[in-house]
Amino acid sequence: MKKVHQEYILEKFPSLVKIDESMKKHSSFGIGGKAKILFLPQNTHDLKSILKYSSNNGIDTYVMGSGSNILISDKGFNGILISLKRSFKNLDFYDNGEITAGSGVMLRRMVKEAIDRNLKGLESLAGVPGTLGGALYMNAGAYGAEISNYFLSARMMNMNGEEIELSKDNVRFSYRKSTFPKDCILLEARFKFQYGDIEKIKKDKNKFSISRVENQPLNFRSAGSVFKNPSSTLAAGYLIDQAGLKGERKGGAMISDKHANFIVNHGNAESSDVIYLIKKIKDKIFHKFNINLELEIKLVGFEQKILNELGYNES
Asked: If exposure means fewest CB atoms within 10 Å of the residue's CB, which of 71, 151, 258, 263 is most exposed?
């Protein structure tokens, strides 16, 4: 990225820009090199302005939420990395059970406030990190429930700064996937929930929260589940465990001995350590079970050669 672009963006948006920002502190993994520009928009006007500039000047741009399910390269990101974690925080509830939520709303907040209002359906997502935007894009789910079950519509912005609206009839969802346009950014979404018995809702929420604490390595930094489950009846973590890979280490990264589908940062892990373990897992599972595991985490800033080796396709 040319220095002239850094200088122009810093001059135009001095309070919204961080130059050569280390991404370690912006990722739940605690891993990542420097972003040439980290842009933190406050509203749709800021977002539209930076998208138009990046589009007109051919600058690589990537949009992230809170950084909870991404692995950023040690080499950083040679472009504009837009973080929505400080904006689009609107969260509105209506008497008919509908919710309108900005893409930057933390999923935990949405779950808590929905439960506080006796709305059922999100109990299994209690404790899941990340923003609403990321959760909807990847159709986040747990214990058999998915957020797409309650989706009504979304307001989005394309990379030219133009806003569009999509209804549930325009979007298809499947396991950890959606057909939202990949060149569009989610601004807010609308959902519809039913009211339920508050005691049962809270009981279910506590059950799922306890299960998460008991079965996931929450005391270590990670990006959550590394791989998608091959099917609804076959868990990636089970396969990795059966392959004897629990506890495998490379540098500061380790395949969790508590949940094999988590790679954790044991201290000063680098992205190259994690990539090494991902490759080892994929190779071992393919040769032992003839199953090609697909990544659930997103990879940012990596060379195409590495992405090809991993069979990575951001979808």
From this structure: 258
Read off the pLDDT of each residue in 155-182 and give the average, rounded to a whole number. 94
The answer to whether residue 207 sits within a structural domain is: no
Is 7 tagged catalytic? Answer: no
Enter the tokens of residue 57. 């000047």
- What residue type is assigned to position 190 of the chain? R
Active-site position among 73, 148, 225, 271: 225
Looking at 83, 111, 141, which one is the last position of a domain? 83
**Predicted pLDDT at 315:** 59
The angle formed by the CA atoms of residues 97, 101 and 102, to the nearest 5 degrees, is 170
Point out the catalytic residue in the list 108, 109, 176, 221.
176
Per-residue pLDDT tens over the stretch 19-42: 999 999 999 999 999 999 999 999
Choice among 123, 146, 188, 296 that is catalytic: 296
Give the CATH number for residue 46.
3.30.43.10
The yes-or-no answer on residue 225 being catalytic is: yes
pTM as predicted: 0.94
Cα distances (Å, whole numbers) of residue 159 to 5, 50, 215, 259: 17, 9, 39, 38
- Residue-wise pLDDT for 201-226, tens only, equals 999 999 999 999 999 999 999 999 99
Residue 176 annotated as catalytic: yes
CATH number of the domain that residue 239 is part of: 3.90.78.10
Residue 1 confidence (pLDDT) above 90: no
**DSSP string of 168-233?**
GGG--EETTEE-S-TTEEEEEEEEE-EE--HHHHHHHHHHHHHHHHHHS-TTSEE-S-SB--SBTT
